[in-house]
User: Which sequence fits this backbone?
């Protein structure tokens, strides 16, 4: 007698998920070419992720725009992600938007846990060309971000565009904020796609190397 | 009654692509007619010498257990926990010594470790990291004896070389008659353990458990097991290294 390998059946577990919240400044100052390039960049993100079969199954994207702070796109698998068209108006309630992003991530983790879905450390990716206009809310939001980063609850990245207040960004994010080269959103989103792919392919004990951001960021 | 064991480790397709060796390892030792040791280990993908780390950890842990079991007869859970803790401490020490000799950082030998001892109606388990042990009990029930140990995130795990590994390692003893047992590494986990409940997918294990309870050509069947782990069917579901050790109580007369 031998093992009847053909009778061995496999269970079907959900893929582990790799959630990322894009926290995008859509205030009035983004009007014109900045918002156009940002919209084009989101298309690039969607197309780049489509090149990677595993990332399609594992990466989940949500989009929060400000202002006003609004959940434009709730978490959706990269395979189903269809970039919304963003338009620019209003002020820059960055603090409120950051709080919303952190809340959405906590919620998403609960959903994963309830459904026995494994997950990677969530990312928040903030892009802004200005500074917070919602009073001191950003200060407590910044404290939440730093706490969450220290406890490895989230990985928080920030990118400044043109006249962004980099001093404020460096108070929010423990990781050093990066300055976008001109309006090179396309290369930024190529980089983001490659980075999320790396994370989504990683296995227990792996350190995830991120590609260098030199193609789009100034040092 | 006697124990029969099969085992295989196969390189994952992602390791083939990245030109990495198989970093999984396994070993089974029959100490006496009624005492069997088994271990599986999964060397960390990001650790350069983890293919050696997994083998060294298994050898050191099983050597340690063999010494402890020849010196004392174990009669309660506390004593089992003590010798299992010693086995894990010895495995860590072996990796530390190797790191000192080669002057390669300890973390490069990072590996998980799962050890099982079956003696009479005792099953004692030491477990650090992911991977699992599934058993078929005398009443026919199939259950997860030791579930994957995970951090919050899918790419997190505490290796033997990690700070405080001995405190994180889980030592458990079970007093029930075991008919068959499977030890597996993380590469197979998604195919055979239900994420949500941690319980086994019975249709995965049943054909293995059924076969191993009857006398087999162990060498030939282990080879076929390797081929199975390398098969397209399995590789379509997992690109990681994978290890499966199957142990059964055979009904055949003793030779």
Assistant:
């Amino acid at each position: 007698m031998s093992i009847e390998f053909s009778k061995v059946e496999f269970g079907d577990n959900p893929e582990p998920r790799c959630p990322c919240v894009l926290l995008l400044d859509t205030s009035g100052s983004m009007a014109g070419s900045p918002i156009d390039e940002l919209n084009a960049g989101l298309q690039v993100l969607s197309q780049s992720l489509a090149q990677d079969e595993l990332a399609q199954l594992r990466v989940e994207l949500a989009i929060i725009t400000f202002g006003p702070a609004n959940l434009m796109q709730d978490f959706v698998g990269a395979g189903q992600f269809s970039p919304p068209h963003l338009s620019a108006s209003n002020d820059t309630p960055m603090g409120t938007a950051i709080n919303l992003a952190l809340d959405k991530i906590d919620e998403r983790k609960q959903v994963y846990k309830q459904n026995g879905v494994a997950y990677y450390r969530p990312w928040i990716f903030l892009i802004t060309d200005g500074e917070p206009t919602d009073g001191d809310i950003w200060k407590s939001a910044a404290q939440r971000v730093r706490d969450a980063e220290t406890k490895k609850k989230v990985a928080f990245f920030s990118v400044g565009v043109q006249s962004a207040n980099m001093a404020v960004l460096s108070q929010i994010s423990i990781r050093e904020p990066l300055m976008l080269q001109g309006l090179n959103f396309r290369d930024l989103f190529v980089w983001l796609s490659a980075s999320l792919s790396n994370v989504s392919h990683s296995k227990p004990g792996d350190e995830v190397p991120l590609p260098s951001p030199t193609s789009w960021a100034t040092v | 009654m006697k124990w029969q064991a099969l085992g295989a480790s196969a390189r994952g397709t992602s390791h083939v692509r990245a030109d990495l060796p198989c970093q999984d390892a396994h070993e089974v030792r029959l100490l006496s007619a009624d005492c069997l040791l088994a271990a599986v280990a999964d060397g960390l993908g990001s650790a350069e010498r983890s293919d050696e780390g997994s083998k060294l950890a298994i050898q050191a842990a099983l050597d340690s257990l063999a010494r402890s079991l020849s010196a004392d007869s174990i009669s309660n859970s506390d004593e089992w926990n003590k010798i299992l803790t010693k086995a894990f401490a010895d495995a860590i020490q072996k990796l530390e010594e190797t790191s000192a000799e080669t002057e390669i950082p300890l973390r490069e030998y990072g590996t998980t470790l799962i050890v099982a001892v079956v003696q009479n109606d005792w099953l004692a388990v030491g477990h650090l990291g992911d991977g699992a042990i599934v058993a078929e009990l005398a009443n026919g029930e199939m259950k997860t004896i030791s579930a994957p140990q995970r951090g919050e995130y899918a790419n997190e795990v505490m290796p033997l070389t990690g700070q405080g590994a001995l405190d994180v390692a889980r030592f458990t003893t079970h007093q029930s008659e075991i008919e068959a047992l499977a030890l597996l590494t993380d590469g197979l986990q998604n195919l055979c353990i239900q994420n949500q409940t941690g319980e086994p997918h019975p249709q995965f294990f049943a054909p293995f458990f059924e076969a191993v309870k009857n006398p087999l050509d162990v060498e030939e069947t282990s080879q076929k097991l390797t081929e199975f782990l390398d098969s397209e069917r399995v590789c379509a579901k997992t690109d990681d290294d994978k290890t499966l050790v199957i142990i059964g109580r055979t009904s055949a007369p003793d030779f």
Summary: Helices of chain B lie at 13-17, 50-71, 77-102, 165-168, 186-192, 202-212, 218-230, 232-235. The two ends of chain B are 10 Å apart (CA to CA). The CA atoms of residues 152 and 158 of chain B lie 11 Å apart.
